[in-house]
Amino acid sequence: MRRAMLEWGRFILIWAVCVLSFRAFAFGSYYVPSESMLPTLAVGDHFVTAKYAYGYSRYSPDFTLPEGSIPTADGRLLPQLPRRGDIVVLKPEGAPDALVKRVIGLPGDTVQLVHGRLVLNGQVIARHETGAYDYRDDHGRTVHVTEYVEDLPAADGTLARHAVLQRSDNGPADNTGVYTVPAGHVFLMGDNRDNSQDSRFPYPELGFVPLDRVVARAQFTAYTNHLCRADGALACPGGDWTSRFGRSLKP
In the prediction, which pLDDT does 150 show? Predict the structure, then answer.
């Protein structure tokens, strides 16, 4: 009896180590708490990420490892640079929870917003209007937005096309100075451009994000608690709940 219990205990321990290792180093799952990534991700969406995509830092596991745990110059193992357009999960300094944003600028890039238009490395990024509509936000308010598809150039010369929302082109963060992304950092923004605290707002809001704090790449939505249904004159940004299962999040 004692031997059988020891065998079961060892099996459970091995199983637990395998599960924890899988979550720490292969894939993870996250929940969307805000509207900053509409129309791509809605509040209540649960999505799967690839933790191996950009290498590993002390922030990669669900718990933060002690400083110096990874003895490399940049604190990362098997480092890979994100692509412009990737949706990433990050663990920002001074914040208790992970955030999800889109990579806009890589190290050395310049980023600016002029009348709501994204200017990357001095070039105005093309966008194409796909419609205007009203929706009810997470606080019950009716919001009017225009939806665009933005042609963000990825580093390999392809276009990372993705949808963005604008309430107007003259909001508080629609006209900015020029941001130059420092080495070892990325510039991140939400797709809901007038409702996102992102790299346009300096620390302690967010600011430039160190690469070691970018812990995963979003892969696809798994399921959603977002039960929006189009109702009369009100739309569901990105589609209603029936269209959100298994949606690819790669640009």
Answer: 97
